[in-house]
């Protein structure tokens, strides 16, 4: 009887470590592939941007960033993207106003149009970043390849790996992906320790970040003047600027459904996108060429000389960039909202420094970005991470944590900058 009982006993479960080991190789592969796609799309977009904004206006004898050329280029970009959305299979994916970083699995036939629309947008100047569409493309590719090559793996694994890998590549570090995934897991029922659940995504994010670092050397450090020991004045400045940034971001969030609805009434991408391009061209004429594009390179130019513009000029760029982000996200351009929101926060922080010189530029920039991102993304950990990464100062981190508290009280429970399919805001 004892022998029969022994033969019928279930096998002992594998140790947690042995259960996690098989995920390492697929996660590494996903990380590298997702990063390579991001780098390829970014490089192609940069090459096209040079043609459109340097070679072509120089050949025509037109100023590269003259009012006329900015208006022509942004309108032409709206027409080009409108054609892709109209004619491409799958219409280049769902309405970007309804999508976030948590991308759905799209049919493969949609991906070429989405990639083309994204590259045209990045090169043409609208104020959006590559994160949302590139995550969507990577999620779809990894999902279909994963099901083909490893059919026994759970389907839910592949989107998480693709998202983590792309975020790691975007920021050049797996930390942002780990924070984002941890925040997402907080609202779900999961089995086992947190680190067991983030293990494979963290491997994918690390592989994506290392691939991007080795090939492209991304950096978020703006090289602002070093910040010393904080005092009570710095604490007050941090709380005020973060709160103002949150209020400014929430103003755009609350306007989002109405602006989106206005463009939706045009009922066709060949009307909505060119109209959005015209509005963006007029905004660029008001704010200058630094308010074009996703904003990461332009942020570096602003931070390189914090004393180079007046408070009025910084404030104008803040408002214009936020309006450009709102219009570009509403009229149908395929892109994400994080990078232009960073520009808005940086310009706001430098406005505070120009108005009150006692406000250190690092404090102004970090807390401005924190407040705006909290409102735009509703992702607390990612907002803190990006704000801290811009200034690379350990002394600022404590101020950011404290400043996030009043800013979060202003945004929590409010609408997000993402809509349902019926055009209503998500809370």
Task: Report what the structure shows.
The protein is an all-alpha fold and 427 residues long. The chain is built from 17 helices and no strands. It has helices at residues 2-8, 16-20, 24-60, 67-87, 111-124, 131-149, 157-171, 175-185, 194-216, 232-264, 269-287, 296-304, 311-331, 338-355, 361-377, 380-391, 394-411. It starts with a helix and ends in a 16-residue tail after the last helix.
Which strand-content bin applies to the residues?
under 5%
Terminal-residue CA separation: 61 Å
Structural class: mainly alpha
Mean pLDDT: 88
Helix content: over 70%
Largest sheet: none
The Cα radius of gyration reads 23 Å
Net shape: globular
The count of helical stretches stands at: 17
SSE series? HHHHHHHHHHHHHHHHH
Low-confidence stretches: 1-7
Strand elements, count: 0
């Amino acid at each position: 009887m004892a022998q029969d009982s022994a033969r019928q006993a279930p096998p002992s479960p594998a140790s947690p470590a042995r259960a996690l080991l098989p995920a390492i190789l697929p996660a590494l592969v996903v990380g590298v592939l997702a990063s390579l796609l991001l780098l390829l799309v970014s490089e192609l977009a940069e090459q096209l941007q040079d043609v459109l904004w340097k070679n072509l206006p120089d050949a025509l004898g037109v100023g590269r960033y003259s009012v006329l050329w900015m208006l022509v280029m942004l309108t032409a970009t709206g027409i080009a993207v409108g054609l892709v959305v109209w004619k491409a299979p799958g219409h280049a994916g769902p309405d970007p106003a309804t999508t976030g970083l948590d991308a759905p699995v799209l049919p493969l036939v949609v991906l070429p149009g989405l990639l083309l629309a994204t590259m045209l947008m990045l090169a043409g100047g609208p104020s959006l970043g590559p994160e949302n569409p590139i995550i969507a493309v990577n999620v779809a590719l990894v999902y279909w390849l994963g099901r083909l090559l490893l059919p026994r793996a759970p389907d839910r694994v592949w989107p998480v790996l693709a998202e983590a890998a792309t975020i790691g590549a975007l920021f050049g570090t797996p930390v942002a992906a780990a924070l984002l995934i941890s925040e997402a897991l907080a609202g779900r029922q999961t089995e086992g320790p947190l680190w067991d659940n983030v293990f494979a995504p963290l491997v994918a994010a690390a592989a994506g970040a290392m691939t991007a670092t080795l090939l492209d050397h991304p950096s978020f450090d703006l090289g602002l003047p070093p910040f010393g020991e904080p005092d009570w004045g710095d604490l007050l400045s941090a709380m005020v600027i973060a709160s103002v940034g949150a209020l400014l971001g929430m103003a755009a969030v609350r306007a989002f459904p109405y602006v989106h609805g206005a463009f939706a009434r045009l009922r066709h991408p060949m009307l909505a996108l060119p109209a959005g391009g015209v509005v963006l061209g007029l905004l660029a004429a008001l704010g200058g060429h630094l308010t074009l594009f996703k904003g990461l390179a332009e942020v570096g130019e602003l931070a390189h000389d914090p004393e180079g513009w007046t408070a009025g000029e910084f404030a104008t760029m803040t408002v214009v960039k936020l309006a450009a982000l709102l219009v570009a996200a509403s009229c149908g351009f395929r892109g994400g909202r994080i990078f232009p929101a960073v520009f808005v926060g940086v310009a706001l922080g430098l406005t505070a420094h120009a108005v009150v010189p006692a406000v250190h530029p690092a404090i102004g920039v970090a807390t401005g970005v924190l407040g705006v991102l909290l409102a735009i993304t509703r992702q607390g950990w990612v907002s803190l991470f990006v704000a801290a990464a811009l200034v690379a100062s350990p002394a600022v981190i404590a101020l950011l944590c404290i400043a996030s508290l009043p800013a979060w009280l202003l945004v929590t429970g409010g609408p997000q900058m993402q809509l349902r399919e019926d055009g209503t805001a998500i809370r």
